[in-house]
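B., you asked whether I could sanity-check this one before it goes into the benchmark set. Here's the sequence:
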Amino acid sequence: MTMQEIRYSRLYEKMEEKGLDAVYVRSAENHLYMSHFDNHDGYLFLTRKEGWVFADFRYTEAAREASFPGLHVCEPGKPKVEELVVSENCKRVGYEDNALTCSALADLQRRMPDVEWVPVGNMFSQIRAAKTREEVDSIIAAQRIAEGAFQHLMGMITYDMTEVEVAAELEYYMKKHGSEKPSFDTIAVSGTASSRPHGVPRPVKLEKGFLTMDYGAVVNGYHSDMTRTICIGKADETQKKLYNTVLQAQLAALDAACLGYSNAALDKIARDIIDATEFKGCFGHSLGHGVGLLIHEDPRLASGAGDAVLHAGEIITVEPGIYVEGKYGCRIEDMLYITETGKENLTNCPKELIEV
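And here's what the prediction gave me:
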């Protein structure tokens, strides 16, 4: 099956389950996934037989070139969604309740009062969770760019650099080597600021102690995600123990992860290792998350994941951390691809403690 056939067969199966005649797609990530055209301003109207890509005049030429074969590329209002609802005899239309504003939904309901508008919840995130080989290859390509940025930085980092300059150097390298954009706002925090899991880079010289860098690249719309922590100067014995505890927790979780394994249990493996040390309670976030067209998507690896288990095709992050408020913090993160027969660590970057 082609990429298009796989995606639409998944969509039609979900539409059948929910009794939908059509779906109205407004979010950027699902627009790209279902049309193969990246347009944050556009929308899609998809039935079980036909699909329309609505893009204004600025993007119609690009849309015709990029969109999946068979999709109709139109300017907004040509035709109107109301006309398609009538011509396609649509009674129940799904909408993205996680993406559509209340006012936009109210407008659709006003214009089409005879249509039952059905929230689809996490339908699309479930469809996107299982990655095809083409999607995996895009994420790997993005990850290799991010790894190159890390190696580049290790060859030129100095004590005189600021956190802002570290983040800028990583992002410049990634852009120069093929990344469409950063996966998210790059995190580069040192010294006492490393205790902040999502700290913002500061215009100050690197503090001695841990430097945590969490960042990624984007290829074909697909994100990579990696965290590495190094030490500015020599690490003391407590810092070495902290780092090695995080590494032990990550390696244990990576080793246990496999098809059918409990998401919550995987989180517990890493958390129990950390909580058995003097750093108990210092791992405050979940173990990981899915990665794809969004930097955070299904599944979740967390204590609150219920009875969710790992499925073939999912790409997850495994990123335990320890954060001691006002002192220091460390996180180590890889991406893992779950397959029918095993798993594949998509991250190929050193994890031993580096001191500079």
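One thing to flag: The first helix runs from residue 3 to 18. Otherwise nothing jumped out at me.
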